[in-house]
């Protein structure tokens, strides 16, 4: 499960801390050193870890905490609050169009991250909100991508717009918008091409879609299991095309949690949802407070 190994380590540190009555500054510092190690082992970005432990140390060594009735518990509370801060404190949602404007969502990401699956999962979430989503197949390069989107669209009972793999993505996107307007769709989700590595062509194509269509949400899909690579990919996509948020997939298999804990702190962009399995219903809104509770047990 997500965060299991990190959780186990932190719980060990805190059990020790809780068992002590009064705490000395040295006790707190020793515990936070162990927290630091656990976060680094979980593959959290080292700058993020440094900032995090500095903030927690500063707060924990304050006289209110040290002279309080239950200092161990207070230190744990501070760690919990700062973990929540790290992940962005608040739940962030899709930006919906106002005044009758269609909500446009462009899904981007590297091949294998789970983009096509997540696109269909997201369509299901949007439908639950009482909206009428249209999926658009703009990934014309991976042979099975269009068919995969169609199969998943059918499972979600969501229509898929495709012009096959011979037209340019910008043309497909434009025609899809016309189709959506004529047919009363209020959310349009574009599945774009993923490549194995970030390259110039890929970025140019995504930028071309963005300059032709009024995209309200550019959402990057990253694989939690890739740890700091996911963080680097997020940073690069944000620099090159600008992203509004991230969906982190495969959190169900990520026992470390380094990407989930670093992305907001490094890029400033929030995680909106987390993929928790292969089924199309396995997409959860990302709640920083619930994630922190999951880690601290
Ligand atoms: P794309 O190349 O980015 O479009 O990736 P796909 O959507 O084809 O997904 C790649 C693989 O990851 C598939 O086997 C998916 O079932 C799997 N996958 C996607 N999201 C999740 C997730 O949240 N959890 C797990 N366990 N598997 C996932």
UniProtKB/TrEMBL annotation:
One of the GO BP terms on file: SRP-dependent cotranslational protein targeting to membrane
Reaction(s) this enzyme catalyzes, per UniProt: GTP + H2O = GDP + phosphate + H(+)
GO molecular function: 7S RNA binding; GTP binding; GTPase activity
Subcellular location: Cytoplasm
Annotated positions binding GTP: 109-116, 191-195, 249-252
EC number: 3.6.5.4
Record remark on domains: Composed of three domains: the N-terminal N domain, which is responsible for interactions with the ribosome, the central G domain, which binds GTP, and the C-terminal M domain, which binds the RNA and the signal sequence of the RNC.
Assembly information from the UniProt record: Part of the signal recognition particle protein translocation system, which is composed of SRP and FtsY.
The protein's role, per its UniProt record: Involved in targeting and insertion of nascent membrane proteins into the cytoplasmic membrane. Binds to the hydrophobic signal sequence of the ribosome-nascent chain (RNC) as it emerges from the ribosomes. The SRP-RNC complex is then targeted to the cytoplasmic membrane where it interacts with the SRP receptor FtsY.
Protein name according to UniProt: Signal recognition particle protein
Source organism: Pseudobutyrivibrio xylanivorans DSM 14809
